[in-house]
Structure formats: C-alpha cells, structure tokens
Specification:
The chain has 79 residues and is mainly alpha-helical. 44% of the residues lie in helices and 8% in strands. The chain has a two-stranded antiparallel sheet. Helix 2 crosses helix 4. The protein is globular, with a radius of gyration of 14 Å.
C-alpha cells in the first residue's frame, strides 16, 4: 500500500481524542500507537489485543510519524 493511501487512515477530528491524529476516526491516537511500539509490543501483539485495528493502521502511524520528522534543517538554540 502506498504512503498516500496509508495516510488516509489517519484522521483529525476535534471531537475525537481532543483533535489529536487518530486511526480511522477511532479513539486510538497515533501517539498511543507509537508508544505501544516503542514499549516493545509487536504488530502481532497489538493486533491481537485490539481486534478493530488492522496491520495497515500500524503502518499508517509509522508513515505519519515519518512524514512529521522530515525537516530541512535543525538549528541549535542557545541556552
């Protein structure tokens, strides 16, 4: 599945999760999904625990995070 198609799974709705990016307008935020993955949960464990999620939802969250981290440059701010 192409990145553009995956990103369509990420929704922004001010009435869901305080407007945070979520998966298919469900109450699963991208932030929460990334936290699960960072804690060491595998895709299979997540899908087993949350039956309404699909493999493409996890890929969509990773794609969304990847897009957000693309910056042209980083500047150090003096402390």
């Amino acid at each position: 599945m192409k990145s553009e198609e995956l990103l369509k799974r990420i929704t922004l709705n001010p009435k869901v999760c305080f407007g945070k990016p979520t998966i298919r307008n469900l109450r699963y935020s991208v932030e929460w999904m990334l936290d699960l993955l960072a804690s060491g949960m595998t895709n299979e464990e997540i899908l087993a625990d949350y039956e309404d999620l699909e493999r493409e939802d996890i890929l969509a969250c990773l794609t969304f995070a990847s897009v957000l981290t693309r910056v042209k440059s980083i500047h150090k701010i003096a402390a």
